[in-house]
Design brief:
The protein is 39% helix and 21% strand. The protein has 95 residues and is an alpha+beta fold. The chain is globular, with a radius of gyration of 13 Å.
């Protein structure tokens, strides 16, 4: 099986099973239990994290973020994709 190292907005990633997280004051701290590395996310990053269920496309998450914060999806889509790619590279999400 080939492991993908990139994503597109149509992908439906999920939180990796070897991660744990806690959200405090709308900010998530995610820990990769395999490596001990962690990522701290701001409010909008936490919005993304909470929706990574393996069923929802990144484009849909970006659109929901745009609606929630009343901004244009052309702004949220590249940001959501960039963060998802970072989380994939850190091993914190999977496809």
């Amino acid at each position: 099986m080939i492991k993908r190292i990139d994503m597109i907005l149509a992908d439906r990633p999920k939180q990796a099973s070897h991660t744990t997280f806690e959200i405090v004051d709308d900010q998530a701290v995610i820990i990769n239990l395999n490596t001990g590395s962690y990522v701290a996310l701001n409010e909008t990053g936490s919005f993304l994290w909470e929706r990574l269920d393996g069923q929802t496309a990144l484009a849909d998450i970006a659109d929901a973020l745009a609606r929630a914060y009343e901004i244009d999806p052309t702004i949220t889509r590249p940001d959501v994709l960039a963060l998802a790619r970072e989380l994939l590279a850190e091993g914190m999400i999977s496809l």
